[in-house]
Task: inverse folding
């Protein structure tokens, strides 16, 4: 239960805090973009089984590969992809923490 709370807390609470603290004028738009980072979990549909509580996503799913993570880490350096990159990095951090708690 602790692992679940931490994992989904990072996925949802951290983006809300970032949007409301650092992007006050565009908090809703920012929050939606940050939460769009969750869309990389669509690659779980390619796995069998789709969900395995004891499987680490990092390095297993294509959008959670090390190459993809490197690309996500470059996105905040460009103005047009800054917030999306931040959302993707938050997602990867949540998954890394989950892997460490397995």
Result:
């Amino acid at each position: 239960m602790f692992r679940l709370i931490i994992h989904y807390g990072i996925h949802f609470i951290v983006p809300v805090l970032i949007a409301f603290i650092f992007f006050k004028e565009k908090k809703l738009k920012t929050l939606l973009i940050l939460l769009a980072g969750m869309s990389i979990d669509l690659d779980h549909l390619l796995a069998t089984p789709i969900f395995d509580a004891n499987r680490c996503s990092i390095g297993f799913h294509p959008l959670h590969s090390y190459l993809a993570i490197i690309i996500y880490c470059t996105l905040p350096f460009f103005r047009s992809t800054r917030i999306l990159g931040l959302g993707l990095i938050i997602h990867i951090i949540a998954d890394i923490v989950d892997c460490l708690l397995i």
Summary: The first helix runs from residue 2 to 22.
